[in-house]
Amino acid sequence: MSKTQSWYPGHMVATQRTIRELAAYLSAFIEVVDARAPRITRHQPLQQWVGRTRRIVVLNKADLADRHATEQWLRCFEREGTAVLAMTAANTDTKKRLEHAIRVLLKPPYRLAVVGVPNVGKSTLLNRMVGANRVATGAKPGVTRGPQWIRLPGGWEWLDLPGVVTPRHSGDWRLKALGIVPCPADERSTLVEQIWPLVFVNAGLPSDWIEWGRKRGFLKTGGVVDEQRTADAIVTGFQNGKFGRVSIESPEDC
Questions:
Q1: Mind spelling out the 3-state secondary structure of the chain?
Q2: Would you list which residues are annotated within the binding site for GTP?
Q3: Which residues, at least 6 apart from 53, have a Cβ–Cβ distance to it below 8 Å?
Q4: Mean pLDDT estimate for the chain
Q5: Where is the binding site, in residues?
Q6: What is the average pLDDT across 123-128?
Q7: What domains can you pick out in the chain, each with its CATH number?
Q8: Cβ neighbours, 10 Å, residue 169
Q9: What is the pTM assigned to this prediction?
Q10: Which end of the chain is more exposed for a tag (fewer CB within 10 A), N or C?
């Protein structure tokens, strides 16, 4: 099994099965993607599973993405007829904004499931929507193997799935840069060669990432730059937005 396939946990298969089984019961799927790469972080086969069930796409981590690019992506999805909004799930206005978007599209009762690839903020979003109510509230057909329903006042029901949907192109460097699929330690220097040209100019950094590592003091005995430590710091820093607002997927061809 290749490196890009070996990380695929069995619980993801179970979640995909659950999605297929429950799609017809749900009012909509809330599909979370990373605003820095909204297309590549979608899971295209999801459309085959959900049938006619509505999807609302949330461009999450919008505070880490280039503002202009995000505006273009929003227009792109809207032209395609997709309900979409950009937000940062950790923000306090998340619940109000998403509930409003749902009410515009749907009528109660609202039966919803949050789905998406790993590390795009699904759990953060769900916790914002249900608060302290993230507990099982009753059984529904087809959810006896792990998924839990959370029932809130006003006709709101949220499906808390135990797993995640996997990306379609798990070998793409952008998915590794965002932490959506693992990047082995011996591949991180190569990954940084992709990331660094996107971040060093706007962040006022040296054009050579090795020089950045030297300035940060990532040195081995003899004053040689520790490239592994430097690469690890750059990848982690990029994922956390330490190098500014950067989008890594262009909406120009949308």
A1: CCHHHHCCCHHHHHHHHHHHHHCCCCCEEEEEEECCCCCCCCCCCHHHHHCCCEEEEEEECHHHCCHHHHHHHHHHHHHCCCEEEECCCCCCCHHHHHHHHHHHHCCCCEEEEEEECCCCCHHHHHHHHHHHHCCCCCCCCCCCCCCEEEEECCCEEEEECCCCCCCCCCCCHHHHHCCCCCCCHHHHHHHHHHHHHHHCCCCCCCCCHHHHHHHCCCECCCCCECHHHHHHHHHHHHHCCCCCCCCCCCCCCC
A2: 60-63, 119-124, 163
A3: 23, 24, 26, 27, 28, 29
A4: 87
A5: 60-63, 119-124, 163
A6: 92
A7: 3-160 (3.40.50.300), 183-239 (no CATH)
A8: 12
A9: 0.89
A10: N
Question: For residue 107, with 0-12 CB atoms within 10 Å meaning exposed, 13-18 middle and 19 or more buried, which class applies?
Answer: exposed
| Per-residue confidence band for 9, with pLDDT thresholds at 50, 70 and 90 | low
pLDDT digits (tens, 9 = 90+) for 208-251: 999 999 999 999 999 999 999 999 999 999 999 999 999 999 98
Largest CA distance in the chain: 67
Q: Are 218 and 192 in contact (CB under 8 A)?
A: no
Q: Quote the pLDDT of residue 20.
A: 82
Q: What is the pLDDT of residue 221?
A: 94
What is the distance between the alpha carbons of residues 254 and 244, in angstroms, rounded to a whole number?
A: 24
Residue keyed to tokens 């192109």: 169
Place of tokens 């050579």: 208
> What's the pLDDT at 89?
96
Distances (CA, A) of 96 to 42, 55, 84, 99: 24, 18, 15, 5
**Identity of residue 36:** R
